[in-house]
Backbone:
């Protein structure tokens, strides 16, 4: 188990070095979230559980934050590269059949209002039939989605058997997403190039702040908080707190408190967006590690997961930023000169 922890930490620290000049900022910002993930994993494989259901809940919440990563893969259309198994199972043709919608309260099927409802519900029979039709459509939609989930599970099992590298690479992506390393440009570009076989998903900025903050929030909501509750409950019920249990719960508590304050302050109080939340680590107010402002502003001007192929030129960004600051200072000085001129040439009030 100690070997596994050391391996995870070595891989994490090595991954932060790909951020080049931001490697220390990445290490400082991502270290505790990564330790939280690692401690939860060690807790799962080493601790005794009060009930089997508690173990499965802990496991489910441990991997639940990866649903955000899977959602982004689906949303951006970044499907795995072609292989015999992928082609045979027709992965590229699979998509969830969401046919049910609504328009002014009426059920729609693929965007068209259902022909089985009345245009007006001016009596009780029409109103009852309206809700019955709605209920039938909802049941059919849920049944279709469940059938497709079963189909997706079978396709995934066959893929894992006949093309295990895809499963291994997806699990590697889960690890990179949960440890926040995927927000570093070289790691993102390499993972997606292997996954898709193309470079059209390459990123321009060294750090994807939207993805970084999104993974922080996903960990806080879907992993840290549930794990804190479940692990505390389990340790209390078995009346045993091991060193791993103490460490995991303490780290989860620290991350939960930090998450409540951080996102409550920036999202609710300040009204910022994800990619506008600053990433910085302050050591006693004496030494602060943070990312450059031009990279944060550059992220705000680019849509999330935009397909980018050009490399960023950090030096040119600094020059542009310096020129812009000089222009602002020049404008301010001109305004001050104009104010002085107005005071000098202002007419002296005459006595009437």
Residues:
């Amino acid at each position: 188990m100690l070997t596994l922890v050391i391996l995870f930490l070595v891989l994490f620290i090595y991954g932060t070095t790909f951020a080049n000049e931001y490697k220390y900022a990445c290490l400082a910002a991502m270290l505790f979230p990564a330790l939280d993930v690692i401690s939860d994993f060690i807790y799962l494989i080493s601790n005794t559980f009060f009930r089997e259901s508690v173990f499965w809940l802990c496991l489910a919440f441990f991997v639940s934050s990866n649903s955000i990563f899977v959602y982004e893969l689906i949303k951006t259309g970044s499907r795995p590269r072609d292989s015999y198994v992928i082609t045979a199972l027709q992965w590229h043709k699979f998509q969830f059949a969401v046919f049910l919608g609504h328009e002014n309260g009426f059920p729609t099927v693929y965007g068209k209002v259902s022909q089985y409802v009345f245009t007006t519900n001016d009596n009780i029979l029409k109103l009852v039939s309206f809700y019955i039709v709605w209920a039938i459509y909802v049941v059919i939609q849920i049944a279709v989605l469940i059938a497709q989930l079963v189909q997706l599970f079978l396709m995934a099992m066959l893929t894992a058997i006949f093309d295990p590298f895809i499963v291994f690479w997806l699990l590697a992506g889960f690890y990179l997403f949960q440890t926040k390393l995927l927000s570093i440009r070289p790691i993102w570009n390499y993972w997606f190039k292997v996954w898709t076989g193309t470079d059209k998903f390459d990123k321009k900025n060294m750090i994807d702040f939207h993805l970084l903050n999104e993974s922080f929030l996903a960990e806080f909501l879907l992993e840290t908080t549930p794990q804190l509750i479940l692990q505390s409950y389990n340790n209390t019920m078995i009346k045993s707190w091991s060193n791993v249990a103490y460490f995991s719960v303490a780290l989860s508590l620290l991350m939960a408190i930090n998450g409540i304050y951080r996102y409550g302050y920036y999202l609710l109080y300040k009204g910022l967006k994800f990619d506008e939340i600053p990433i910085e680590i302050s050591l006693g107010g004496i030494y602060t590690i943070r990312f450059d402002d031009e990279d944060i502003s550059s992220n705000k001007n680019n849509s999330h997961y935009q397909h980018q192929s050009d490399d960023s030129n950090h030096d040119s960004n600094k020059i542009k930023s310096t020129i812009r600051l000089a222009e602002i200072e020049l404008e301010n000085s001109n305004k001050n000169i104009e104010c002085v001129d107005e005071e000098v040439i202002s007419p002296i009030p005459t006595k009437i």
